[in-house]
Design a protein that fits this description.
358 residues; alpha/beta; Spore Coat Polysaccharide Biosynthesis Protein SpsA, Chain A; 2 domains; 5-stranded mixed beta barrel; 4-stranded mixed beta sheet; 11 helices; globular
Length: 358
């Protein structure tokens, strides 16, 4: 086969702890309508409409979440759900999907996407994706970078060097290096220097390119995945023994064949309740509300708050500012929005105490 058909891999195995109490072990963030409307994994799937048909979409998720994937994406063939028996980070996830796609179409182009990003408008995203896919036919490992609009400390950065040319009208840059999440001073320095992008965690490559990179940079992982795909070995035992590394560290930071396409449209990894507040519609006083169909927010002398409430709930705010108020059937969270990242500490406390609200 020489089709260079585009396949998609949706990574959907995360736990979403910073979205507690809405995000739980039984139904984490990617299976919730965090941004309103569809669940996040459905939005990711629909964003591929017109480019990648359901039979060429793979979802890698936790074994305990496979039924949720099937529930959210009924069009997805059952064989395209790769259920991890244990969490081993993103490199094993990417490698497993890459080898499964290679069995079907060794000449395929692959796009790898997190399940829980908000990207708008979808047609602008598809245009960038098409450009990366066209360039990937010639080889190389492609990633997407978000043009920073402020010195964020919550993202990794990618430093680019020369522009290599255009693909379908989209600029393509050589990648100089990957940089871990910086402190504020360093982030300000990056913006002043220019050429730095936030790491969007989206990748495009040919099947041949990613398999070659896996064999070169992660031979132990590659050998383990090959045994899994060939069958005859115990999946749970084999998977647990795989090296647990992010794909960025395992491959991207080590390769000298990485290229970047900029994202110039709206992108958010919605990593906290504060991030959700930033992308949600707001009333005249800056209050954002993500509510069930019959939910209602009453805000009196209240401003710049986020309310997330499930079901038929009325939430009233009086004289408060800058809060996240999250209400579910069994738990409630109230915290300053600028401390939303600390919600993970609540989850850690619940784990340590053995309280069953996770």
């Amino acid at each position: 086969m020489t089709s260079n058909a585009l396949y998609a891999v949706i990574m959907a195995g995360g736990s979403g702890t910073r979205f507690w109490p809405a995000s739980r072990i039984a139904r984490p963030k990617q299976f919730l309508p965090i941004s309103g409307g569809l669940t996040m994994i459905e939005e990711t799937f629909r964003r591929l409409d017109g480019l990648v048909p359901p039979e060429r979409v793979f979802v890698v998720t936790a074994e305990s979440q496979a039924a949720l994937v099937a529930e959210c994406l009924p069009e997805l063939p059952a064989d395209n759900i790769l259920a991890e028996p244990c969490a081993r980070n993103t490199a094993p996830c990417v490698a497993w999907a890459a080898h499964e796609i290679a069995r079907r179409d060794p000449n395929a182009i692959q796009v790898v996407l997190p399940a829980d990003h908000v990207i708008q408008p979808a047609d602008a995203f598809r245009k960038t994706l098409e450009a990366a896919a066209a360039a990937a036919v010639e080889g190389g490992l492609f990633t997407f970078g978000v043009e920073p609009d402020h010195p964020a400390t919550g993202y990794g950065y990618i430093k680019t060097s020369a522009q290599l040319g255009l693909s379908l009208g989209e600029p393509v840059y050589a990648v100089d290096r990957f940089v871990e999440k910086p402190n504020l001073a360093k982030a300000e320095e990056f913006l002043s220097e220019g050429g730095f992008y936030w790491n969007a965690g989206i990748f495009v490559w040919s099947t041949k390119s990613i398999l070659a990179a896996l064999a070169k940079y992660t031979p132990e992982l590659d050998a383990g995945i090959r045994r899994i795909v060939a069958g005859g070995s115990d999946l749970a035992v084999e998977y647990a023994a795989l090296p647990s590394d992010p794909i960025d560290i395992a491959i991207m930071e080590r390769s000298d064949d990485v290229r970047l396409l900029p994202i110039t449209y709206s992108w958010n990894d919605v990593g906290s309740w504060q991030a959700l507040a930033e992308i949600s519609p707001k009333d005249a006083n800056g209050n954002a509300a993500v509510l069930g169909p019959a939910g209602k927010l009453i805000a009196l002398d209240a401003k710049n708050n986020l309310v997330y409430a499930e079901g038929e709930r009325v939430v009233a705010l009086v004289g408060v500012e800058g809060l996240a108020v999250v209400q579910t059937e069994t738990a409630t969270l109230v915290c300053p929005l600028d401390r939303a990242q600390d919600v993970k500490a609540v989850v850690d406390e619940l784990k340590a105490s053995g309280i069953n609200f996770l």
